[in-house]
From TrEMBL, chain A:
SUPFAM superfamilies: S-adenosyl-L-methionine-dependent methyltransferases
Signal peptide coordinates: none
Keywords annotated in UniProt: Methyltransferase, Nucleus, S-adenosyl-L-methionine, Transferase
Cell compartment(s), UniProt: Nucleus
Origin species: Hypholoma sublateritium (strain FD-334 SS-4)
Protein name, as recorded: Methyltransferase small domain-containing protein
UniProtKB/TrEMBL annotation, chain B:
One Pfam family here: Trm112p
GO terms (BP aspect): rRNA (guanine-N7)-methylation; tRNA methylation
UniProt record similarity statement: Belongs to the TRM112 family.
Source organism (scientific name): Hypholoma sublateritium (strain FD-334 SS-4)
Full protein name: Trm112p-domain-containing protein
InterPro entries xrefs: Trm112, Trm112-like
Lineage: Eukaryota, Fungi, Dikarya, Basidiomycota, Agaricomycotina
């Protein structure tokens, strides 16, 4: 058992501004824990979490893989960036945090160099205006407002993933049933020859959540 | 908390800015030195991912001249310790980073680099 990261330093005030770990977060942790051994064996050097929020997920990965990996987090919400940094510190994981959108600040320098990419995105279907508004306001609404099919933000990233992943790299994505999981897998295969697999799924209340893992075809 | 290891991975990503957009130039920086745990295994593994000249030049601008101009073949302890210090112990707390190509300025606030672009600047 890998312990769930210590989040006792975060308060209600923080969670008014930053996404509080929930069922989707824990489903992702379960999927990563199941892959712990094979992740270790793949000897990663760079791990990037997009939309790290509280920093819970990267701290968890840091506990699995130890200090010989560079842990990078991005989030559009500046308060989430601070929380990710604190959570790293609290859990003795050295996290490098950048206030930015998706992986864009790294796309030039880390092309085909990232070994692990993780994204629990804003996946709730909303109007496009709502999603765009949340993206520019950089606040807590950006944690869930996903636009058309809940895929507006995720789709932008999906088009860059192949360029970022190292030869043996993996990408873990959280998705909702309404996001059309089989469609996502099919599109990534057709457009980029990336093989996607549902590694975990769970019904949580009204939400049916999935974790998809993508890798190059060997 | 922008450290030189992160700085070495960041490039300008403004619309149509694709060449000569790296390394970003530090300006008006406030530095803090904080000790970090020395991990030679990590450093050895990370070395191939670095842009060496950019790292050496940036360190120099921040007042650290401990790194050789060419990456050495023999990674002895003294070299690795210097590299460790440059990459992980020099923290840029405040200041900004400017793109050498288009001049876009990325501020550093409370130790976190702000790489967000406005809607019309996104490529
Ligand atoms: C569902 S929350 C997940 C938070 C955390 N990773 C977790 O699992 O608990 C989505 C996160 O993505 C961030 N986000 C939304 N759009 C983003 C974008 N374009 N780039 C980076 N982060 C983004 C939000 O601010 C929020 O922190
Ligand atoms: Zn530029």
């Amino acid at each position: 058992m890998i312990p769930t990261p210590d989040l006792s330093h975060l308060s209600r005030d923080d969670y008014d501004q930053v996404y509080e770990p929930a069922e989707d977060t824990f489903l992702l942790l379960d999927a990563l824990e199941e892959d712990a051994e094979s992740l270790k064996r793949s000897k990663p050097t760079i791990c990037l979490e997009i939309g790290s929020g509280s920093g819970c997920v990267t701290s968890f990965i840091g506990n699995i893989l130890g200090p010989s990996v560079l842990y990078i987090c991005t989030d559009i919400n500046p308060h989430a960036c601070q929380c990710s940094r604190w959570t790293g510190k609290q859990n003795k994981v050295d996290i490098h945090v950048v206030n930015g959108s998706l992986a864009t600040p790294f796309k030039h320098r880390l092309a085909r160099k990232i070994d692990i990419i993780v994204f629990n995105p804003p996946y709730v279907p909303t109007s496009e205006e709502e999603a765009s508004g949340a993206q520019s306001s950089q606040d807590i609404d950006g944690a869930w407002a996903g636009g058309r099919d809940g895929m507006q933000i995720t789709n932008t990233l999906l088009n860059c993933i192949e360029k970022l992943l190292s030869p043996c790299g993996r990408f873990y994505l959280v998705a909702l049933k309404q996001n059309d999981v089989p469609g996502i897998i099919r599109r990534m295969h057709e457009a980029y020859c990336l093989k996607g697999e549902v590694v975990h799924q769970r019904r949580a209340g009204r939400e049916h959540l999935f974790v998809i893992r993508f890798a190059r075809e060997q | 908390m922008v450290r030189l290891i992160t700085h070495n991975l960041l490039a300008c990503h403004a619309k149509d800015c694709n060449t000569n957009n790296f390394p970003l130039a530090f300006k008006d920086v406030q530095l803090e030195i904080r000790e970090a745990e020395f991990n030679p295994e990590f450093l050895r593994g990370f070395l191939p991912k670095l842009e060496w000249t950019a790292l050496v030049d940036t360190a120099k601008q921040l007042g650290d001249t401990s790194l050789p101009v060419e990456q050495p073949e023999m990674l002895d302890d003294e070299f690795l310790k210097n590299l460790h210090h440059v990459l992980l112990e020099i923290h840029v707390e405040e200041g900004s980073m400017t793109c050498p190509n288009c001049g876009h300025v990325y501020p550093i606030l409370n130790g976190i680099p702000n790489m967000l672009l406005a809607e019309h600047e996104i490529g």
